[in-house]
Write a structure and sequence with these properties.
binds zinc ion; 11 strands; TIM Barrel; 317 residues; two-stranded antiparallel ribbon; alpha/beta
Length: 317
């Protein structure tokens, strides 16, 4: 089994849709994170937003890791801060998939070009900001020569945020063509979903059960909380933002038993600096966050998971 670690590497303004004035102070923390990765031989994929890809200091930090061959640089489009700005800046338009296709393409192209220019190689891996991905985005990615896509969040429906519904997807990677987000042998793009599933054996059954308990009656009864505490229904994201090390390890063991070919751990660079993301609010959280990653990497190393970047995984998949 392969271990992929994919990081949305973005500006400090969590959920504030600003076209300009996007500081990138959190990127300073990547040096420490990368030291941890290097210690365990982990090659992460940093997916860059436009402010990060254009800030000289963040470019220098990430370039120094890339030239050593210790990471991959991909792209991560936040439409609200990626030119051109032909749309109204609002929540609906914060999802790339909600914009007209030609504007999607123009934004992807401008992000693609600054990464080519500032990092010397064309990015081939992509994740949409706020998971706002659809087949039109896939078409633009194909036009720009991308090979991997990682916006699918299995068993999640972003409808209430005006985003896509990935609730029928599971964590299995698949090749597809831009016309449809369903598996197709020989497809031009490899979809590598975020690793999201359950601690229990049957992911589809757990998901259906979980959906049934969404109604207000069951919510009032706190049924899901009770089942979670009893260890009967536990949805897990392989992310130090959502799960502690012990839970991530249990989930990884479940994914291994179910013979998934890879694990895709996801998080945001903003979680490296307290007070930016909602997941890490104190200095104590900052320490705990890196400890969670390190404990997981110790486990990964002990069971022989091989780390690789998205592009490396695509070339051997
Ligand atoms: Zn983002």
């Amino acid at each position: 089994m392969k271990l992929l670690i994919t990081i949305d590497t973005e500006e400090d303004n969590w959920s504030r849709y600003r076209t300009i004035e996007n500081p990138v102070e959190n990127i300073e923390r990547i040096e420490k994170l990368q030291t941890l990765f290097d210690r365990y031989g982990v090659k992460p994929t940093y997916l860059l937003s436009y402010p990060v890809a254009t800030n000289p200091r963040s470019v220098a930090i990430l370039n120094s890791i890339q030239v050593e061959g210790h990471c991959e640089i991909g792209s991560h489009c936040h439409p609200w801060n990626t030119p051109p700005f032909d749309e109204e800046i609002n929540e609906q338009n914060s999802m790339l998939c909600n914009l007209p296709e030609e504007l999607q393409y123009e934004k992807l192209k401008s992000l693609h070009e600054v990464i080519c220019h500032n990092f010397g190689t064309p990015p081939v891996s992509f994740r949409a900001g706020r998971w706002g991905f659809n087949t039109e985005v896939a078409r633009s990615l194909t036009r720009l020569g991308y090979r991997t896509e990682s916006s699918v969040t299995p068993y999640c429906d972003w409808g209430e945020y005006r985003g896509p519904d990935f609730s029928t997807h599971d964590p299995q990677p698949f090749r597809f063509n831009p016309e449809s987000l369903s598996p197709q042998a020989g497809g031009s793009l490899l979809q590598i979903p975020a690793s999201i599933g359950f601690l229990q054996q049957n992911f589809q059954f757990c998901h259906r059960l979980s959906q049934q308990f969404e109604t207000s009656f069951y919510n009032k009864m706190h049924i899901k909380g009770i089942l979670r505490r009893l260890g009967l229904l536990n949805k897990v994201w392989l992310s130090p933002e959502h799960a502690d090390a012990a839970t991530m390890i249990k989930f990884a063991q479940r994914m291994m038993k179910k013979n998934y070919p890879c694990l895709n751990m996801t998080f945001h660079s903003t979680s490296l600096l307290a007070g930016l993301s909602p997941f890490v609010t104190t200095e104590q959280d900052e320490i705990r966050f890196l400890q969670r990653i390190e404990r997981f990497l110790k486990f990964a190393s002990a069971v022989g998971l091989e780390s690789m970047t998205l592009a490396q995984y695509e070339s051997c998949a």
